[in-house]
Fold this sequence. Notes:
By secondary structure, this protein is mainly alpha-helical.
Amino acid sequence: MGWIVDLLSEVPxxxxxxEKVSQLESKYTALEAENKILKSENGDLRLKLDDARREIxxxxxxxxxxxxxxxxxxxxxxxxxxxxxxxxxxxxxxxxLRKAHLIEIIAGTGLETYWRLQHEGRRYLVQHxxxx
Length: 132
């Protein structure tokens, strides 16, 4: 905006206009600086949010793995209730752990299904410091 001040220096009543332009230029500079700070803070918040989401997923996975490790065998409903998950979410994660040969199904006396760790599941927990 410096060129506007130069242009106005040749116009009558320019002192008043020059003062107003100078004030606007100061406000503009302050707003630019504030905008830069806000963009920076917003980027930091996004990074923190991404980190928090990754940590939540890690803790969920750890909770699922250590829950089964803490018991000799658990029924699907016990696992679901302990984790506070939807039944289908629990079934999905149990199926994924079974496919990875980390847990196995044990037939119950009725319609219930029980789960327990396999050797590979224990190995994973020991290697990752999840069993104490």
